[in-house]
Amino acid sequence: MSWAARRRFFILLILGTIVVAFLAIVSIATFSNTPSCTDGLQNQDETGIDCGGSCAYLCTASVQPPTVLFTKALSNGAGRTDIIAAVENKNAGAAANDVPYRLTLFGEGQALIQEVTGTLDLPPGAIVPIYVPGIVSGKQTVTRAFLSIAASAPKWFTFPANARTVPLVSNTTQSGSTDAPRIEAVLTNSTVTPLFNVRAVILVHDKNGDVIAASETVIPLIPAQGQATATFTWNSAFTDTPATIEVVPIIPLPDR
Q1: What CA–CA distance (Å, rounded) separates 99 from 226?
Q2: This model's pTM is above 0.85
Q3: Distance CA 99, CA 66 (A)
Q4: In sequence order, what are the residues at sequence separation of 6 or more whose Cβ sits closer than 8 angstroms to the Cβ of residue 158?
Q5: pLDDT confidence of residue 70
Q6: Which of 114, 128, 195, 255 can pair with 105 through a Cys bridge, CB separation 3.0 to 4.6 Å?
Q7: Using 50, 70 and 90 to split pLDDT, how confident is the model at 1?
Q8: pLDDT tens digits for 207-227?
Q9: pLDDT at 29
Q10: Do 236 and 77 form a contact (C-beta atoms < 8 A)?
């Protein structure tokens, strides 16, 4: 074999080796994936597909689904309707954030008026109010409203109930006039970190416990170990005499 032939042989041998190595790498990457919590398989120490064990998310079968306690429509005039609802997370050590929900509004004869979607956080062992103002209902009167959450929608993760600090509500007072009610409440931040843009939802109940009014406000700042006042106002009279007033601060869960 001549020197030129030997050189061509060795070049082809090197190129062939490179091609074989490349194909081997591709095959390993394609057919021998390392088990993970996102591979769509139940492997490692998982107790379900990509959940339980060392995975960040809990399996749906191991936690209780969220419970919708009530959904109520409140007329807002001018063809608009406010919705107030409450969802309970009965799991003492599990939470879920950005859980999708659907609101469905019906009129007379079960006529569908409107559907609205949104998301909410579900802290452990908490009842979370959902206030959606000004839904367009046109000339139709909303007779029934439903809030639904698919059982598979929450991505549950372990979260201790005491890992989240919520401002303490006190000194709730009612003022204003009959046609323009006003309610104020003091929110106290017991932590050494200031709280910014804190949402607060108010539910006004009659003597039977039914919600007769609701609203939401944002408190720009609650100083560290300090207080701030949440103010709620309405442009029309309550439909009944308030018996109890409930103010609920909404503190987001940490992002996952």
Answers
A1: 31
A2: no
A3: 10
A4: 58, 93, 94
A5: 97
A6: 114
A7: low
A8: 999 999 999 999 999 999 999
A9: 53
A10: yes
- Would you give the distance in Å from CA 239 to the centre of its chain? 30
Q: Quickly list DSSP for the chain.
A: --HHHHHHHHHHHHHHHHHHHHHHHHHHHHH-PPP-TTSSS--TT-SBTTBSTTSSBPPGGGSPPPEEEEEEEEEEETTEEEEEEEEE---TTEEEEEEEEEEEEE-GGG-EEEEEEEEEEE-TT-EEEEEEEEEE-TTSPP-EEEEE--TT----EE--GGGS--PEEEEEEEEE-SSSEEEEEEEE--SSS-EEEEEEEEEEE-TTS-EEEEEEEEEEEE-TT-EEEEEEE-SS--SS---EEEEEEE-PPPP-
Q: Can you tell me the distance from the alpha carbon of 228 to that of 101, in angstroms, rounded to the nearest whole number?
A: 31
Nearest to 73 by CA among 26, 37, 116, 23: 116
User: pLDDT tens for residues 2-36?
Assistant: 656 566 656 666 666 776 666 666 555 555 567 78
pLDDT at residue number 167: 96
Backbone angles phi, psi at 31, to 5 degrees: -105, -5
Q: What does the alpha-carbon distance between residue 144 and residue 78 come to, in Å, rounded to a whole number?
A: 18
Look-up of token digits 């060392």: 54
Is residue 87 within 8 A of residue 130, CB to CB? The reply is yes
d(CA 50, CA 46): 6
Q: Which residues contact 29 (CB under 8 A, 6 or more apart)?
A: none
- Name the residue with tokens 């006003």: 182
Structure tokens at 187: 């929110």
